[in-house]
Automatic annotation (TrEMBL):
One of its GO terms (molecular function) is calcium ion binding. The lineage of its organism: Eukaryota, Metazoa, Chordata, Craniata, Vertebrata. Keywords: Calcium, Hydrolase, Manganese, Metal-binding, Repeat. This is Serine/threonine-protein phosphatase. It comes from Calypte anna. SUPFAM superfamilies: EF-hand (SSF47473), Metallo-dependent phosphatases (SSF56300). Belongs to the PPP phosphatase family. It comes from the Eukaryota. Pfam families: EF-hand_7, IQ, Metallophos, PPP5. Residues 317-344 are annotated as: Disordered. One of its GO terms (biological process) is detection of stimulus involved in sensory perception. Coiled coil: none annotated. Residues 538-573, 622-657, 662-697 form the EF-hand domain. InterPro entries: Calcineurin-like_PHP (IPR004843), EF-hand-dom_pair (IPR011992), EF_Hand_1_Ca_BS (IPR018247), EF_hand_dom (IPR002048), IQ_motif_EF-hand-BS (IPR000048), Metallo-depent_PP-like (IPR029052), PPP_dom (IPR013235), PPP_phosphatase (IPR051134).
């Protein structure tokens, strides 16, 4: 009996260990592919940034197009934005059966919204715009770092990423209760993208924010960014749900996003930020930054301001040329006589020199703005952040790059077990920070620990850095049904974290514990390897070159060790390929792999879904996400169509980058050839088909 018990125990431990290994490998696959996609987004964004910086507009029309297309947002004053999003002119028809809102909002309004969204109803565009307008007004009065105290409520509940998964939010409210004067919540960013009900989540959170402004707190995440929304689905979701007023709703949402607070501080001891910190994180600077300048953290207003400065200079020079004859030598009447700047301080005094340069530039810019009547957006009324700046008149003036890095680091960074701080090359943005960086920040600001989100965790939460950094993630089944639990954390006056885990999936709830574990791992594993095979297929050409480099004698066969090294050299996913090999390589002979037949099997698997030539399908798989993002960038009004004018100006931008001149009639012929149905616009299917035909001809 004793031997039998030991045998059973050994068998069970071996089974659990293998199960855990399968789960970890599956997790690595999902996470590696997700982060590689984020890298692609930043690379694509940097490419367009390069184009913009190296393109010289030849006319005001081109300059206006470039500013609308690649700059992070149009400059709206308060009155202009309200006029643009005029919700009062939108009538609600009698046939509308959804919830009705009136302001100020009451708890009954929030309850009505919850019930309506459970029944798959949609809030009318008039109410959406009205809600966004009121939310924006409220957020403008909040500081960059919100201060919360547990003295006024029994506990504070902190939720992590939701990513458009409304069922998770419903489950949180069911388990923990709705926001109320005795139930405070902090939602730590990434409300949108990936999931299909991002807009509903925003509406619910904004409604509770207005009803309970002292109990509901929202932090900005890295997905509260208009450039990220173009790639990960939120822009598309809004335009599909609101085809008539979607553009106005998007404009208001992105303006609201840039006013979201950057962090929350509980009892001056627990700092809540979306991503993380770096060795240069400065909470004092974060408190004084004008956060609304950064509509997209990936691309702030730095280029916008530089391009505007060029325009200002051109306008001034033009006005001078028109007002003064070349031979005349008189003062410009429209410009006051400007005193010459004082002699520059000694180079030895670098700090003094820096202040002198900044002050001189600011003075010159201010004069230029007055001349051409240009004013910064959102300057009509003082905000909380601007009042902080005014109160501290002697504070150092930071560059736009320094401010942008502060925000980028707290929204995009991840912790690492090693000491130090280094660039986050996996995501492409932010940094990796070690336990020593965490310790220094905690000591400097007298904090107990940090709460962050930004990373999916299998159990919904995870401690690191000697329990000084807590990651909380609230979107369950993030990669696939059963892939992970969601969680939220509750903090009382003692600031001891209490966790609640959940999984918003009806199928898994009907299974026993053993069935659930086996079902979930098998399903998640199958989904992960399917995604990995698609990734391998998308890089077929590069893989063939890598395999041939290992196959010196041109036998068509390579060792499994060489196969693993070649695959990693192409995909750069950091996966344990030797361990994954049995799931990816079905048959081998004498430890050798016939790589051409293996790649043909991959192609057959993908071709069974789409009847396209293998080489073309490979290219489309590899580029579809980038192509869709490019299409949405060009389609600035988010109509789902690119006008001939938009395409014309975009092609001039590309041709200038590639040093290939194309005449006006040539561009017109090109755009007409892409417009297959001859309706005067280019939709995404036409855009993709043109790409496919070009690759086929090559």
């Amino acid at each position: 009996a004793f031997k039998a018990a030991v045998l059973i125990q050994c068998w069970y431990r071996r089974y659990v260990a293998r199960l855990e290994m399968r789960r970890r490998c599956t997790w690595r696959i999902f996470q590696s592919i997700e982060y590689a996609c984020e890298q692609d987004q930043i690379k694509l964004h940097n490419f367009f940034s390069y184009l913009m910086d190296h393109f010289t507009p030849s006319s005001n029309k081109e300059r206006d197009f470039i500013s609308r297309m690649f700059v992070t947002g149009e400059s709206f004053k308060e009155a202009e934005l309200e006029k643009y999003c005029d919700y009062e002119s939108i009538k609600v028809p009698d046939s509308y059966t959804g919830p009705h809102l009136s302001f100020p909002l009451l708890p009954d309004h929030a309850t009505a919204l919850l019930e309506a969204f459970k029944q798959k109803k949609q809030l009318h565009a008039r109410y959406v715009l009205n809600l966004l307008n009121e939310t924006r007004k409220h957020l403008k009065q909040l500081p960059n770092i919100t201060h919360v105290s547990t003295c006024y409520s029994e506990e504070v509940t902190v939720c992590g990423d939701l990513h458009g998964q409304l069922d998770d939010l419903f489950l949180i409210f069911y388990k923990n209760g709705l926001p109320s004067p005795s139930k405070s919540y902090v939602f730590n960013g990434d409300f949108v993208d990936r999931g299909k009900q991002s807009l509903e989540i925003l509406i619910i959170l904004f409604a509770f924010l207005l009803i309970y402004p002292k109990e509901v707190h929202l932090n900005r995440g890295n997905h509260e960014d208009q450039m990220v929304n173009l790639r990960y689905g939120f822009t598309k979701e809004v335009m599909q749900k609101y085809k008539v007023h979607g553009k106005k709703i998007l404009k208001m949402i992105h303006n609201v996003f840039c006013w979201l607070p950057l962090a929350t501080l509980i009892d001056q001891k627990v700092l809540i930020i979306h991503g993380g910190i770096s060795d240069t994180t400065d909470l004092d600077m974060l408190e004084k930054i004008k956060r609304n300048k950064f509509m997209s953290v990936l691309r702030g207003k730095e280029r916008k301001e530089s391009s505007r400065n060029v325009e200002v200079q051109e306008i001034i020079e033009k006005s001078k040329a028109e007002a003064d004859p070349p031979a005349a030598n008189k003062a410009e009447p429209s410009l006051p006589v400007q005193p010459q700047p004082a002699e520059a301080p000694s180079m030895a005094k670098k700090l003094e020199l820096s202040r002198w340069v900044r002050q001189t530039v600011q003075e010159q810019m201010e004069r230029c703005r007055r001349v051409v009547d240009i004013s910064e957006s959102e300057e009509d009324e003082p905000t909380c952040a601007s009042m902080v700046s005014l109160a501290d008149g002697d504070r150092p003036r930071w560059t736009h790059q320094e401010e942008g890095k502060q925000i980028l680091d707290i929204l995009w960074s991840d912790p690492m077990p090693q000491e130090g701080c280094r660039v986050n090359t996996v995501r492409g943005g932010g940094c990796y920070f070690g336990p020593d960086v965490t310790g220094k920040i905690l000591e400097k600001y007298n904090l107990q620990f940090l709460i962050r989100s930004h990373e999916c965790k299998q159990e919904g939460y995870e401690f690191c850095h000697n329990r000084k950094v807590l990651t909380i993630f609230s979107a369950s089944n993030y990669y696939e049904i059963g892939s992970n639990r969601g969680a939220y954390v509750k903090l009382g006056p003692d600031l001891v974290p209490h966790f609640v885990q959940y999984q918003a999936n009806k199928t898994a709830h009907t299974l026993t514990m053993t069935q659930r574990q086996g079902f979930q791992i098998s399903r998640v594993e199958e989904s992960a390897f399917r995604a990995l095979r698609e990734k391998l297929f998308a890089h077929t050409s590069a893989l063939i070159s890598a395999f041939k480099a290992c196959d010196k004698d041109n036998t068509g066969r390579i060792t499994l060790s060489n196969w693993a090294m070649a695959v990693e050299s192409v995909l750069h996913l950091g996966l344990p390929w030797r361990m994954l090999r049995p799931q990816l390589v079905r048959s081998t002979e004498e430890g050798m792999l016939e790589y051409k037949s293996w790649l043909e099997d991959l192609a057959m698997e993908q071709r069974s879904q789409e009847h396209i030539q293998s080489s073309l399908l490979e290219v489309i798989y590899r580029n579809r996400s980038n192509l869709e993002t490019i299409f949405r960038i060009i389609d600035r009004d988010h109509s789902g169509l690119i006008s001939f004018e938009e395409f014309h100006q975009t092609w001039k931008l590309f041709s200038s980058h590639m040093n290939s001149e194309l005449r006006e009639d040539g561009i017109n012929d090109l755009v007409r050839s892409i417009d297959f149905n001859k309706d005067g616009n280019i939709d995404f299917n036409e855009f993709l088909e043109a790409f496919r035909l070009v690759k086929q001809s090559q």
